[in-house]
Amino acid sequence: MPSVGYAHLLQQLPLSAFAPERPARVASVMRVTATVDAILVPAHVAPTGDDPLEHVLFALKHEGIQLQILAQALRHIPDAVIRDAVRRTPSGSYIRMAGFLWEAFNRRTLDDLPAITGPTVKLFDPRRYLTGPVRRDPRWRVSFNGLGSLQYCATVARTPSIEDLLSYDILARAQAFLAELGPAATDRALSWAYLHETESSFAIERETPGADKAEAFVSLLRQAHQRRPLDESYLVELQNAAITNPFDKAAAFRHQQNWLRGPLRGAAGITYLPPPPQWVPGLMAELLAFANGAAREIDPLVAAAIASFGFVFIHPFMDGNGRLSRFLFHYVLAQSGHLEPGLLLPVSVAMKRNEGAYLEALQHYSRPMRQRWSVRWLGDEDYDFRFQDDDSLYRYWDATPCVEFGLSMARQALEKDLREETEFLARYDRIYKAIDDRFDVRGSDLTTLVISALQNQGMVSNNRRKQFHLSVPETVFEAIEQVCAEVLAGPGD
Fold first, then answer.
1. What's the pLDDT at 166?
2. Gap between the Cα atoms of 216 and 213, Å rounded
3. Do the beta carbons of residue 321 and residue 312 sit within 8 Å?
4. Which residue of 175, 245, 392, 422 has the fewest CB atoms within a 10 Å radius of its CB?
5. Phi-psi category of 118—alpha, beta or left, where left has phi over 0 and alpha has psi -120 to 50?
6. CB-count burial class (<10 Å; 0-12, 13-18, 19+) for 163
7. How far is CA 312 from CA 17, 241, 430, in A?
8. H-helix or E-strand spanning residue 421
């Protein structure tokens, strides 16, 4: 059955934009019906011909906003066509949206137009999308309310999962949880969080940080609460702090092409190519403008996910981008004012545990982007990269899977990781005190035995018994197991 709207534009015009998740097509239905994988359109509602503007107007009305396709398609529509359509219906909501976007994407102003009338219309329907601050264009009577700007904008649909996670109010729960612990327990829980966040962030990249690397990254994470806006020089400082190899330390955003690769040899091993270096400064300027202000204008976790994933998609440095992207998640949260100074949600711990879902969120964007590049392997580490496409592919992207993943990881970081570690520390304290009150055991030995017993379902392993049999009496091993059983069988701490 014939495609309409965005799918028709992709077929009719020489566009490289990503295909819509649910393409619209004519079907034997009574009204426009959205299914899991398509939008079914009755014949009497569908555009009757191939006029691109008619399909743009249909898409704006029935399919929502897909800026990648609109940015490219509207450049193929002559100004006279837009002007004539505005003259026919100067108050029409969708032609006003199309005219507003046409001027933005063509970087030209349409002249000789009639007086634009009609109520101001929002570009993104707040019932359908998460939206940003409203910026009204009085000429077209259209308000831009996207997550970003007309030069760089992420789109996030209001999925049931995202709505549920937002209503859970994760940051408020995190504040309340840590406030209940008291200063001493909070300090210990956060010390654990900073250390394990560091280890997990490196582990995601298949690295085990040495003491110097770990200390440097913990120090980096603690900078997230500093009131310093992001710019190129600050990011260079952060990259230098996160990287210990002096040859990999940057002096500025990259001036050469970089890429990500998998285990396969040659061109087949290249899994993602970020934008050409000449586009990086402009893209980063837009992303940083969003990251510096969005956390106080929209939900901080949504802003954090967009900033973090947006950064890794641009990949502004030759090394250290993954770690910095996860730092940006914490930075945006810290700058929002919704977390007290020093507080941290160990989201990388949750991400490491859910690496498959992390990869899926990344690949939702990286896979179709890889298909837009021509890669020829010249041998060894030499490649010929060709990207003759449109920068709109990097400027406008669907962040829905990334935001859904980021929100889910933040909830897990609170509900599973912080809570479980806090309970572990409380149980450790009770067991340690009970044994220390009864027996004279060296502190370091007792610490090791209690921790290992808690990690072994309350049992002191044979290896630990052999290790400490010359310094710890057998009765202590038995007492540890007895107290562990009592503590583990009791109510939650």
1. 96
2. 5
3. yes
4. 245
5. left
6. exposed
7. 20, 18, 44
8. helix 419-438
Question: For residue 243, what pLDDT is reported?
Answer: 84
Tell me which DSSP letter residue 149 carries.
-
Q: Is the dihedral of CA 292, 295, 296, 298 positive or negative?
A: positive
| CA–CA distances in Å: residue 490 to residues 455, 458, 493 | 17, 13, 8
Please report the pLDDT score of residue 225 as a whole number. 87
Q: Identify the DSSP state of 295.
A: G
pLDDT at 491: 63
Tokens of 253: 């955003």
Side chain identity at 414, as an amino acid letter?
L
Are the C-beta atoms of 374 and 385 separated by less than 8 Å?
yes
Distance, CA of 268 to chain centre:
26
Task: Tell me the residue type at 61.
Answer: K
- Percent of the chain clearing pLDDT 70 (strictly above): 99
Number of H helices, E strands in the chain: 21, 14
User: Residue 259 in contact with residue 366, Cβ under 8 Å?
Assistant: no
Strand, helix or coil for residue 221: helix
pLDDT at res. 1: 62
DSSP state of 28: S
Q: Which of 100, 95, 155 is nearest to 124 (CA)?
A: 155
pLDDT in tens, 128-146: 999 999 999 999 999 999 9
Strands 24-26 and 39-41: parallel
* Residue 267 per-residue DSSP state: G
Start-end of H helices in 205-276: 211-222, 232-242
| pLDDT < 70 positions in the chain | 1, 491-493
Q: How far apart are CA 232 and CA 283, in angstroms?
A: 12
Q: How far is it, in rounded angstroms, from Cα 83 to Cα 78?
A: 9
**Whole-angstrom distance, CA of residue 349 vs CA of residue 421:** 12
Please check whether residue 373 is in contact with residue 386, taking contact to mean a CB–CB distance below 8 angstroms. Answer: yes
Chain-centroid distance, C-alpha 110: 37
- Choose among 474, 463, 414: nearest CA to 175: 414
Burial 335-374 (b: 16+ CB within 10 A, else e): bbebbeeebbbbbbbbbbbbeebbeebbebbbeebbebbe
Spatial neighbors of 373 by CB under 8 A, at least 6 apart, are 270, 273, 385, 386, 387
Which residue in this structure is represented by tokens 């993943």? 405
Residues 6+ away with beta carbon under 8 Å from 364: 398, 401, 402
CA distance 305 to 350: 14
Instruction: Write out the two tokens for 396.
Output: 């406008």
Closest CA to 52 of 1, 90, 8: 8
Question: What is the rounded CA–CA span in Å between residue 34 and residue 37?
Answer: 8
Report CA dihedral (331, 337, 338, 344) to the nearest 10 degrees.
Answer: 40
